[in-house]
Amino acid sequence: MVKTAHDIIVKPVITEASMDALRHGKYTFRVMKNASKHEIKDAVEKIFGVKVAKVNTIAMKGKLRRMGRYEGRTPSWKKAIVTLAEGSKTIPFFDGMI
Predict the structure, then answer these.
(1) CB contact set of 34 (below 8 Å; sequence gap of 6+)
(2) Confidence class for position 1, pLDDT limits 50, 70, 90
(3) Are strands 77-84 and 70-73 parallel, antiparallel or unpaired?
(4) Which residue range(s) make up the domain with 60?
(5) N- to C-terminal Cα distance for the chain?
(6) Is residue 85 over pLDDT 70?
(7) Out of 6, 37, 85, 96, which could bridge 53 as a Cys pair, Cβ 3.0 to 4.6 Å?
(8) How far apart are CA 31 and CA 74, in angstroms?
C-alpha cells in the first residue's frame, strides 16, 4: 500500500492544550499508527507548504468504555506534535483559532 501525504495526516487535534501550543509554533495532528517521523514531516511540508523543524510522536492508548455490563476500548491512535522552523509561515487552517 502506497502512503500519500493525505493518508498519513488523518486530522488535526483541537484541544485546549493544543491551541495553547500554537503560540509556540507547535501543531498537533492525528496520524497513521505506522507512520514514521520522517513521513509525517514530509507530509506536513507537502500539504501545508511550511518548513518543519521537529516532530514528536505519542502513541495514545484507547479509552475504556462500557455499555451496561460489557466493556471495551476505543481504538488506539498516534498523535504527532509538529514544531515549525523559525522563519516558516503558519498553517492557515489554525490561524483563526489562536
Answers:
(1) none
(2) low
(3) unpaired
(4) 5-86
(5) 37
(6) yes
(7) 85
(8) 16
